[in-house]
Design a protein that fits this description.
The chain is of the alpha+beta class. It has one domain (9-104): HIT family, subunit A (2-Layer Sandwich), CATH 3.30.428. The chain is 20% helix and 19% strand. The protein is globular, with a radius of gyration of 17 Å. It starts with 8 loop residues before the first helix and ends in a 24-residue tail after the last strand.
Length: 128
């Protein structure tokens, strides 16, 4: 088992949790406070506090982590979804063990997802 901490909730879940998906080095669990019809957390088995320390993963592990996020979304039946990482308390991180949120489940989702691109108005003289 990779480096873990005894005082970390997510390390405990990695050791003893009920997973929706598991692969070498990573597990996925349902969020206990879902913000969408499907809300899954992806956790590395190794304890890393935040995304700031992502360099603790070598390039192969980092690539595998992203692949696992995509595999997990597919496994739970999502084709359209959002992936989110909260980095630090000011950004909403409440458990300091790196984790990825996968949120989806259709238009009835309870999370407002802002548009990725703002609509700009083009002045008439430029719209030719």
């Amino acid at each position: 088992m990779p480096k873990q901490r005894d005082d970390c909730l997510f390390c405990s879940i990695v050791r003893n949790g009920a997973y929706v998906h598991k692969a070498n080095g990573f597990v996925a669990i349902n969020d206990i406070n879902p913000l969408a019809p499907v809300h899954v957390l992806v956790l590395p088995e190794r304890h890393v506090d935040t995304f700031r320390e992502v360099s603790e993963f070598n390039a192969r592990e980092a690539k595998r982590m992203l692949e696992f996020v995509a595999e997990t979304a597919e496994k739970v039946g999502l084709t359209d979804y959002r992936v989110q990482v909260n980095v630090g308390a000011g950004a909403g991180q409440t458990v300091f063990h790196l984790h990825w949120h996968i949120l989806g489940g259709g238009p009835e989702a309870s999370v407002e997802v802002p548009a990725a691109v703002a609509t700009a108005e083009i002045p008439d003289e430029l719209d030719r």
